[in-house]
Amino acid sequence: MTHFKDPFNPNIDVWNECGEASGEPADPYAGLTAEDAELLTRRAKQSLNPEVGMTRTLESAVMQGLFKTDVSRRAFLKSAGVTGALAAVATVFPLSSLQLMAEEAIKNLEKTKLTLGFVPITCATPIIGGHALGFYERYGLDVDIVKTAGWAVSRDKCLNGEYDGSHLLFPMPMAMSLGLGSTAQPWKVVSNVNTNGQAIVLANQHIDNQDPKNWKGFKFGVPFEYSMHNLLLRNYVADAGLDPDRDIQIRVVPPPEMVANLRAGNVDGYLAPDPFCQRAVYDQVGFIHKLTLDLWKQHPCCVFGLSEKFISENPNTTIALTTSILEATAAAETSSGRVAFAESMAPANYLNQPVEILKQILTGVFPDGQGNIKNVPDRISFMPLPTQTMGTWVLAQLRRWNYIDDDTNYATLAEDLVLTTTTREHMRTMMIADQNLSFADAEQDVYAPVDIQGQTFDPAAAQDFIDSQPFTHS
Q1: DSSP H/E element including 282
Q2: Rg (CA), the chain
Q3: Do 198-298 and 100-195+301-368+377-465 have the same topology in CATH?
Q4: Alpha-helix residue ranges (DSSP H) falling in 194-257
Q5: d(CA 315, CA 304)
Q6: Pfam families annotated for this entry (predicted)?
């Protein structure tokens, strides 16, 4: 069993003195007496209750006021023991009064009426289904989700404050923070709302031309310049010997317009999100050439993003909102959840798609437009932890294709922009509080090298990786 940031645990860094990506103990209860370990375990199980969670926050503030640093706090706890420390601190500040303060605070979340943006694609399943199935309401939030036609509009509405938070493409909070394509405004990747879930689709006329080496002169659509779609497509054709900036054309096409452009012959294909990959098959205008999970298993795609300003000004609302989206993400990953979410998202105010198509996508049983019925359960997955490897790869690719002007320390920048540690702590706390809740990705190595198209990407050697790749324009 893991831990949350309990200020009475002598084995953990509560105040993040080592930074966002600081290391964590393998056993947070090592060296403690059985009584103290049991006490801390019980406190951890209670922590997801919003009022109890608020109490822990106030306890942390009291402890920081008393001891100033983690070093001093830990020394005191190891000397007095957890049980003794609770009693000793209570003589200075009655901790029972914190519960009353917490109860009052939880009734006064900084903001309860929220507006979130979404682009109508299945990547947004936790955000859309979370609204349709009542996940936000469980945490006292009145959330309005607004369908947005494309990513440039979504970005602009985020930057001008029309949206409190939004469904975004993984590279977008980074681009927004760095001022790529817009004015700079600090935004954070809070959680993945999906992994996998994309495909390369080609027009039917190319059924006998599926070797990317032969695609010189092709016109491809991607949903946004700062997207995993653009970066994965560039990587795919570059590995086949084509320069994506010279040998093919890459055009930005809003997702809802993808199928129409394929039908009209404006593009030869696209790397895009569903439902518009499966919709091309359904409408008999295209076929699935390759699922992107075959390029990079469990690659990131879309995220839930919040501005640094919102997180700072609304810490309690941020916790409630993140909890509701993480809970919806976990539900979407289950077999029964996939069917329920598909049915809930079909109406016009959400995805406006036949339920049949959405079930094909979410269950992974689908026709590929080439005469085959495929069974790929993880065609789309819902693994919410945004890893540092993901963030570093995205930043490195933005540099590779000269969206970022200068070499930088990609790993350090990713640690600032991707809230890996905070979100993992939140996921762990939720699993402790609810034994029926599971996040399969919670304990993965967030700095692990990954295989992408048969090559190993090591985030610790991102610049070397860029320099070794064909057609690098940095």
Answers
A1: helix 276-282
A2: 24
A3: yes
A4: 228-239
A5: 16
A6: NMT1_2
Least confident interval from 33-42, 224-233, 366-375: 33-42
Q: How far is CA 152 from CA 27, 180, 223, in A?
A: 45, 12, 10
**pTM of the full structure:** 0.80
What angle is formed at CA 317 by the lines to CA 316 and CA 322, rounded to 5 degrees? 105
- Pairing outcome for strands 450-452 and 455-457: antiparallel
Domain ranges (residues) in the chain: 100-195+301-368+377-465, 198-298
* H/E element, 144: strand 142-147
Conformation bin of residue 223: beta by default, left when phi > 0, alpha when psi is -120 to 50: alpha
CATH class of 198-298: alpha beta
Supply angle C-alpha 86, 60, 26, rounded to 5: 85
Q: Sheet containing 286-291: give its strands across.
A: 249-252, 219-222, 269-273, 198-203, 286-291
The H or E element spanning position 381 is: strand 380-381
Q: C-alpha distances in angstroms, 102 versus 98, 139, 176, 218?
A: 6, 15, 35, 60
Q: Which of 172, 168, 232 is nearest to 196 (CA)?
A: 232
> Does residue 259 have a pLDDT over 70?
yes
Residue type, 174: M
105 pLDDT exceeds 60?
no
